[in-house]
Specification:
The longest helix is centred in the middle third of the chain and has 20 residues. The relative contact order is 0.11. The chain is globular and about 60 Å long. The protein starts with a helix and ends in a 6-residue tail after the last helix. Strand 3, helix 4 and strand 4 form a beta-alpha-beta unit. The strands form three sheets. Strands 2-1-3-4 form a four-stranded parallel β-sheet. Strands 8-5-9-10 form a four-stranded parallel β-sheet, sandwiched between helices. By secondary structure, the chain is an alpha/beta fold.
């Protein structure tokens, strides 16, 4: 009997039981999007910076960022569940200590994203809606995978100063592969490695993807054409929220990426 009780206690520690959440704070933008997508928006009482989709999310009280949570502001919202990307975010441990159930969502693949949507469906009492959403997303993903692969050589410019790209272990590298392309820096065993112009030139990219985030796309195009030659490389500018947030809109980003891979070279 003692052994059984010990086993049950261990199980409850590893897999805490969370009753249907009534008041949720989404402490990461992708979780915010997941919750709205499964119909749990009315249960959301707070978010963080960049919780801006759908439009209703902008009306939520923002109680911190991906780096730090304002614990006092969060507790004033009387949440019973906090969905976080990591327990290491400052303030999360205190929330848990004050009785808020903490649920971690940090997908590193499509399958783990689907699992997290289903998990949130159970926690919020929306399992049917979550299952329907996952089914739709799986169908879209399979359709993308079934299309002919282009094997286009891709350089993904995460940032330009310093120059950062997506290495082999990154979710972005997997997206490029799923869309049918080839990440020119997939062999690098770092998630977001620093690279230089010379290494990009040597890798001979056919497509450069530039997230639409605080930079002038025309300037970046002119910069790379100076080094690679005009007409030798194509460019795609994609909303980073569609590629960097592992939520339901990730399939929108993947479809845009695949379209860019399959476009014919610029004729100008």
């Amino acid at each position: 009997m003692k052994a059984l009780l010990a086993l049950l206690l261990l199980a409850s520690t590893l897999f805490p039981v969370v009753s249907t959440a009534q008041r949720i704070v989404a402490l990461t933008p992708h979780a915010c999007e997941m919750l709205y997508a499964i119909g749990a928006g009315p249960q959301l009482v707070g978010g963080v910076s960049y919780c801006d989709y759908p439009a209703e999310a902008n009306e939520l009280p923002h109680i911190g960022s991906y780096e730090r949570i304002n614990v006092e502001a969060a507790l004033r919202l009387k949440p019973d569940v906090a969905v976080v990307m990591s327990r290491n975010v400052a303030g999360v441990a205190m929330l848990e200590k004050m009785g808020v159930s903490v649920v971690v969502s940090n997908p590193i693949s499509f399958e783990t994203m689907f699992d997290d949507i289903l998990k949130l469906g159970e926690i919020t009492g929306q399992p049917t809606e979550a299952e329907m959403l996952v089914g739709q997303l799986r169908e879209r993903l399979q359709a993308i995978r079934n299309r002919p692969r282009s094997e286009t050589a891709v350089f993904y410019e995460v940032w330009h100063d310093p120059m950062i790209t997506a290495g082999g272990p990154s979710f972005i590298s997997d997206l490029i592969h799923q869309a049918g392309g080839r990440n020119i820096f997939a062999e690098l065993k770092v998630e977001t490695p620093h690279v230089n112009v010379e290494s990009v030139i040597r890798a001979k990219p056919e497509l450069i993807v530039i997230p639409l985030e605080r930079r002038d796309i025309t300037d970046r195009r002119n910069f790379w054409e100076k080094w690679l030659g005009r007409g030798n490389v194509r460019f795609a500018a994609i909303d980073p929220d569609l590629l960097h947030r592992p939520g339901p809109r990730l399939l929108d980003g993947l479809e845009l990426l695949q379209q860019a891979l399959q476009e014919k070279p610029d004729a100008r």
